[in-house]
Amino acid sequence: MKAAEELFRRYHAPVRQLVGRMLRQAPETEDLVQEVFLKAFRGIHGFKGESSFKTWIYQIATNTCLNHLAKAERKYAHDALEQPIGPDGELTLADRLASSKPGPEATLETREVYERVVSAIDRLSPEFRAVVVLRDLQDLSYEEVAESLGLNLGTVKSRLARGRRQLQKWLGDLRERVEGA
Amino acid sequence: MRENTTEAGCGLDEAIAALVDGMLDARAEGEAWRHLRACEPCRESALDWLAMRHACLRVGAYERRLPGFAAADETWCAVARALAREPGWAQASGRIVAFRARRRTPWGWAAAAAVVVVTAASAGPSAVRLASGWWAPAAPVAEIELYWHQHGAYANDAAGGGLLAPEIRAVEAGFQQP
To answer: Among candidates A55, A30, A32, which has minimal Cα distance to B71?
Structure first.
C-alpha cells in the first residue's frame, strides 16, 4: 500500500487541480478526486506502462470529469469563488485564498489576477478547459496533453488556440498587469 | 482587450499558440516572427497569449500549493479504506507482492522458481499448490508496487516556472526589430 500512497501523494495536487478546474470547484470535487484514484488503482492492470502514470491518471481524471459533467443536470455557478465551503459553510473559497499563505515565492501579484484567470478558465467549455488546464496550468507538453486526453496532436493544437482566443476576450488587459509586475 | 486585436486573426492562431509555447521549428518560427512584425493584430494576440500563459503557469503553481491541495490526508484515508476492503489489497504484503507481479523481472522469475523448488523439497506438493496461487491473478497492489519500484524516481510534475515579465518585455522588444 505504500507505493499506492506515494503515487497518491505525488499526483494528488495536479489531479485535484484538474478535477477542480473541470468541475469549477464544485462541492463534489474531492469525491471525484477520490474516485479517480480508486479507478486508477483498481484498474492498474490496464496500465501498460507505455505511457507515464501521470498521463494515464490524467486520462482517467478527464474522462471521469467529462462523464460527470455530462450526467450533471444542474449547471455549476460560474462564480465558484463565492460558494460557501468549510465545515459550517461560513467561508468562501475567496476567503480561504486570501487567508492561505503558500509561501512568499508562490504569492501572486494580486489575488485579483488569480480570480480573473480561474474564472475565465471556468467559462471555457469542458473540451477547451481540459486542454488549457493541462497545457497552461500544469505545463504538460503537447504530446502529454494529447496522450492524457486521448486526442491527436492536431486537435490539441486547434483546441488550445481556440481556447486561448476565447480567454483573450476575457483577460485582454492581463498583459499590462504582468508587464507592470 | 485592445480594440485592434483581431477575433480570428489571420488564420494563424495555431502557429501563434505554438510560438508562445516555443513549439515551432526554426523555419516556422522565423516565418511566424516575420508575420508578427508585419501584422499588428496578430502581434497583439501573441503578446496577450504570452501574458496569459505566464499568468496561467503561475496560477497553476500557486494553486497546487494551497492548503486544500496539499493536505490530502482525508482523501488518502478514504481511498485506503476503500481499497482495504478489497481482497487483492488487504492481503498483499511482503513476498506475496513480489511473486504476484505480472511483469516480473528475470531475477524475479529466478527467485520465484527457487522458492517453488525449495518449497516442494521441504514441505511437499500441497505447499507447491499453495505457492502456485502466487502466480495468478496478479494483485493490483503488486502492479503498483512494481511500477513504483521501477519508476519511483520518475520526475515529479514541474511547478511551472513560466515566463517572467522581463522576458515578455524582451520578446516585445524583439518585435520592434526591422
So the answer is: A30
Task: Write down the pLDDT at residue A153.
Answer: 94
pLDDT in tens, A104-162: 434 455 677 888 899 999 999 999 999 999 999 988 999 999 999 999 999 999 999 99
For A137, residues 6+ apart whose C-beta sits below 8 A from its C-beta are A17, A21, A121, B56, B57, B59, B60, B63, B160
Which of B13, B65, B138 is the closest to A102 by Cβ?
B65
Strand partners, A92: A84
A91 forms bridges with which residues in the sheet?
A85
DSSP assignment of A41-68 equals HHTGGG--SSS-HHHHHHHHHHHHHHHH
Angle, vertex CA B47, rays to CA B43 and CA B49, nearest 5: 115
**Which of B6, B62, B76, B93 should be substituted to probe chain A, the one whose Cβ sees the most A Cβ atoms within 10 Å?**
B62
In chain A, which residues have their Cβ closer than 8 Å to the Cβ of B67? 96, 100, 102
Least confident of A2-6, A103-107, B97-101: A103-107
C-alpha cell at B153: 524516481
Contact between chains at B67 and A100 (C-beta distance less than 8 A): yes
Are B59 and A114 contacting, i.e. CB atoms less than 8 angstroms apart?
yes
